Amino acid sequence: MNKEILLDTYVLQQDMRIRLPKQILNNLNVIKGETMFDIYINVDSQEIILRISNSKRGDNRDAK
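Structure (tokenized):
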């Protein structure tokens, strides 16, 4: 069963931003300016996947 729901279609801005639909605030536990997303890409299916991150703001996962 496919759980994907199309919320809206947006253009990729010149500065690489994508506007997220307001329905995300109503349906997910996210806070503007605070919630971090992990970004994945599936080249085969040409999909970009956003997942709410478990890391806290300011964490640097690349730091060694």
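The chain has a mean pLDDT of 87. Residues 41 and 48 are 5 Å apart (CA to CA).
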